[in-house]
Amino acid sequence: MDTEQLQAFLGWCTVINMGLLLCWFIALATFRDQIHKLHSRWFSINLEDFSQLHYTAMAGFKLSILMLNISPYIALRLMA
Asked: Are 53 and 45 in contact (CB under 8 A)?
């Protein structure tokens, strides 16, 4: 795999992962109560903890995208 293919791969991974993050945010912003109701059937969690858990998970996912997709993509672009 050459650097151009790797750049394309990382670029598409970034687009897909950011799309997933956006869908997650939209679903949570739109259907927070319904999602909480569904999850509270399985786990005893109040709405405040539920929101904090999702916010923390989204931050971790965003950081993972930055470290595993965007940073290597930028490094490869600078090498070319």
From this structure: yes
- Residue 47 to residue 29: CA distance in whole angstroms: 13
User: Which tokens go with 13?
Assistant: 């991974």
pLDDT digits (tens, 9 = 90+) for 22-38: 999 999 999 999 999 99
pTM score? 0.88
Cα–Cα dist 3/9, whole Å: 10
* Pick from 74, 52, 65: nearest CA to 19: 65
Q: How far apart are CA 27 and CA 5, in angstroms?
A: 33
Domain ranges in the chain are: 3-79
User: By CB neighbour count within 10 A (0-12 exposed, 13-18 middle, 19+ buried), where does 69 fall?
Assistant: buried
